[in-house]
Amino acid sequence: MILLLATDAQALQVQQIEHVLYLHGKRKSAEVRCRLPVTPRLHEHVEVDLVWAESGESSFYVISITHELQQDRLLVHVALVPGYYDLYVDMLRRRAYLEEEITLQEEQQWSRFELEERLQELYGTSMQRHRAVLAKPH
Q1: What is the pLDDT confidence band of residue 131, given thresholds at 50, 70 and 90?
Q2: SS3 label, residue 90
Q3: Are the C-beta atoms of 2 and 13 separated by less than 8 Å?
Q4: Which of 10, 46, 100, 109 is 20 to 30 A from 117 via CA?
Q5: pTM for the complete prediction?
Q6: Segment holding 129, helix H or strand E
């Protein structure tokens, strides 16, 4: 059953939007509270230079976004992981999980390069074609 609340748009006003960035680096994770002019979108690239000394990373991409309404403010929780998002590599990674060729524990221990090397071993020519396409000047 769906409950529809008859509300005026004025009833749910947000005075402040605060972003909480959860940065998962190789050395250490960090939480940064800030007010961004624009909320990053899923898989979007984000540079956060101020956490380089702590996390060992400054280049991240968004893996999840959640919103939390608290009285008159909105908290936007943004989880970030190091590197850049590659849809093709992500698809092969998920395939390897489904085929039980890699485990979550293995992936957490490997660097991105090690993961791509393992995917290369598993799916050879498709990874080579993908790298060739990425290397072409556009």
Answers
A1: low
A2: helix
A3: no
A4: 46
A5: 0.71
A6: helix 112-135
Residues 52/75, Cβ–Cβ less than 8 Å:
no
Question: What residues does each domain of the chain span?
Answer: 15-82, 87-135
Rounded average pLDDT over 54-79: 89
The residue to which tokens 């005026």 are assigned: 8
pLDDT > 70 in the chain, percent: 80
Identify whether the C-beta of residue 43 lies closer than 8 Å to the C-beta of residue 31.
Answer: no
Residue 120, burial from CB neighbour count under 10 angstroms (0-12, 13-18, 19+) = middle
Of 95, 88, 94, the closest CA to residue 128 belongs to 88
Task: Tokens for 134, please give them.
Answer: 């990425």
Sheet with 59-70, edge to edge strand ranges: 29-34, 16-24, 73-82, 59-70, 45-47
pLDDT at 58: 83
